[in-house]
């Protein structure tokens, strides 16, 4: 029952709460008698703690305890995966090291917690933390991936990091060939809201947690395993999140430690880390080096692509992501090989960051496509069209939907692509060089299992419930729209409740999957309510007795006959007549086996215009157009906001973001928001978003695919391609800072 | 952060006597730099003397030009009609600095006194001679910053930036002790415009030519400037000039706003037709002090505004420049920026 009309743009349902301060984030919650804790981090990246002096800290005013590896309360499930992945405790492959917070004197990464200081106020805890003194016996830390690329290991898993279609080296014999290396630096999510947790043992075995998590059920599960208590005794609340971008996709060890310490001291305990700790305690986009070999014939048909990526991970945990995946299915190319390796370094473990590995891979692939188009003297869109594929060449099956050609066309029109000259460096405005670039992005469209409860009350109001958190994409708004579309209840009578484990179970907010997953459950629950209403109306003795369901229409609380609008009954009367105060449905929803017959992806196309100053190398993005092909758009306004946010992140990835390590010390030298440059307003031009907005007939009843990731995936490539078009110079190492461009131009 | 005492004064005299009387006492103006340094334990004051209530926030015409009070906010100076009209370079430089929120708090005196942004200076687990000078006895801003309860030296000595992350660092006038730069934008305009600093101290009042206010690191990198203990900046004087039609502040940075300069250039010219009658040139992001380009100025004076002349001037300006690895690009970026700024200021296409 795919809706075939576009949805109206509605305001974000929680917008007012957010701008008036009415939305409560985890740190806003106050529980009487709460204590505060501050983490003391290691100042070396590898070695052991030689001595740890906590006496002064212990004696400082207000201090309730100083916890180190010498006195950390035991965590009963410590042998189980503490801080397991959000989606459940995926068994971790064995690494030589294990990291258990505050369990030994061994230092595995810079900033590793060596003490947690607890006091009656945050300020006192902060001061006392500064009194903890450690000495170390230091070992040489391996933190520079560039120096250790050769040590890459194949990740555990089915394909061992390798994929092959056709011949691995077919590109070599092609008439036109390309080999290029690309680098992505460490990027840090850096949402505005800092990471932390508020833990409150409400009884000896019952726990209340306010967390900064992208999944309350996942946090509940992780804590249940760590403390060996039943999940139902753990209540997790995370309704709002001040940005996640992936850093809340797992339960971090320090969260578990705070829960353990709260139990020990017998008081609610709050942790809010500081900004520099955001660089070491909650993951990052891994430093990744990539090589692309590509071969094409003179007509611009791809003959072969080989894509190799090597990324950093921690010594104590293997983190992997889908960096090379896009290359496998994006273009009609008979010979494709990919290779993915990880290198265990003395670094804290990475985690997915928006667009995750796909964004890293897309930068390389889409830059290479542009380089090849240039070699072939083809327009970059034309080159992509010559290698366009209507079926997925990786899995040999159709796409559930793909409107990418239309996306190319509409984006090109909007940016004014016809003004682009294929010869680089040939457009000037005053002293500035002008260039246009484009690139493609794609990401899996998932259909995960989720549940939702919907309650229709006799007064005509509707409540939608799901445990899912809204990390900002507008989940609440989208669910409101979905419920409205089925039951036609006025928007202002629909309330969405979410972000709490007391509500029906939902997956972690991530992978652009929530509208599809939770939305489907809401759809099903609403549909079931509608059916119930129809049954009540048409049953014997009902006001519309004998009528068929498809003769009826439901709008604004009135059920009526489509062709005879006078024949109608108010839903409230119907419920009253049947003594029903509420109709209450909970539905679990997951895709059927027929989904296996399709490849389901969302697609995006990004277009940018840049200005480059040939003397200073300064690059400014002056126009951006992003097109999303992600099925039916459920909530056009919040969807556009998603795209805008993705583009802003993409500008940061392309031009400014880089966390820098001084490898002599293994420590960051720009771990603050003044020196780690996220894009600011002045970097971000007006962004035009275009939604193809055609329903996917396969994936779910709304026809909606995800769009959070595709908003970012590919964007950095579009900028690099535009810089090339402006200057004739190719920057393959992100970010594209003025020094890199200037040096190539002078 | 560490506990400290806080007092508020209403007269310069009281302020000066408060910091002279007891060691470890600091003036607090906008707090945008000092508080950060306290949080990072680079500076650990015993006492802060709030000078925001001093009657020093005025901007007024004088017989010789303009006097700007030391506690005038950066945003107030940037938006002042007299400044915009007669000293547009200063207004542009201020607006190129920090963010709107910071400029609303930051003061003229605090801006001059702000410390370097060198990462090694800020992280007291890393070596830094500016933060942890080799003790030669009683140097200003040394051990007194460290209190008994901390029981620690102020981190290792040495220069972390040499051989390290020095992309932002100096290419002029550095020493083997320190290659940090002074981060201010405002000061580039002030040094170009021949400002004078009025200070008042326990030994009375004195005037410091702006170019002599900041100093090169030499073997005392802990001393950023020539202000003496207890001295309070009262105001800055700007002499009248004929530069208002041809001024430009160019700031090359990693993002369009809210980033420190890789290189910045302040240009002010007095043009007669296409001839440069007089010129002031200064650069930021290249030295431990605002870097005035007198050789380039001398060369340009009396010459026509042509790209060829700008190139020669830039080459003269670069004499003696030296890179430290990651900042080698500045050896090209700096002259390019001088040329670009001159072109913009003279409206030479
Ligand atoms: C994130 C960030 C980005 C920034 N970006 C830029 C930038 O791009 N460009 C730029 O130029 N600046 C930048 N700044 C620095 C900013 O300009 C300074 O922090 C500010 O000017 C300091 O002024 P204040 O009044 O807040 O000084 P405070 O922090 O109050 O004081 C700084 C120092 O000056 C001393 N002091 C203050 N007033 C006097 C006085 N009258 N006499 C003697 N001593 C005095 C204090 O004792 C203290 O030691 C940035 C700062 C931050 C935090």
UniProtKB/TrEMBL annotation, chain A:
Organism: Spirosoma endophyticum
GO molecular function: iron ion binding; oxidoreductase activity
InterPro entries assigned: Ald_Oxase/Xan_DH_a/b (IPR000674), Ald_Oxase/Xan_DH_a/b_sf (IPR036856), Ald_Oxase/xanthine_DH-like (IPR016208), AldOxase/xan_DH_MoCoBD1 (IPR008274), AldOxase/xan_DH_MoCoBD2 (IPR046867), AldOxase/xan_DH_Mopterin-bd_sf (IPR037165)
Entry keyword set: Molybdenum, Oxidoreductase
Occurrences of domain Aldehyde oxidase/xanthine dehydrogenase a/b hammerhead (ranges): 20-140
Origin superkingdom: Bacteria
Protein name from the UniProt record: Xanthine dehydrogenase YagR molybdenum-binding subunit
TrEMBL record, chain B:
SUPFAM superfamilies: CO dehydrogenase flavoprotein C-terminal domain-like, FAD-binding/transporter-associated domain-like
Gene3D superfamilies the record matches: 3.30.465.10, CO dehydrogenase flavoprotein, C-terminal domain, Uridine Diphospho-n-acetylenolpyruvylglucosamine Reductase, domain 2
FAD-binding PCMH-type domain segment(s): 1-243
Tagged with keyword Flavoprotein: yes
Name of one Pfam family that matches: FAD_binding_5
InterPro entries on file: CO_DH_flav_C, CO_DH_flav_C_dom_sf, Diverse_Substr_Oxidored, FAD-bd_PCMH, FAD-bd_PCMH-like_sf, FAD-bd_PCMH_sub1, FAD-bd_PCMH_sub2, Mopterin_DH_FAD-bd
Keywords assigned: FAD, Flavoprotein
One GO molecular-function entry: FAD binding
Protein name (Swiss-Prot/TrEMBL): Xanthine dehydrogenase YagS FAD-binding subunit
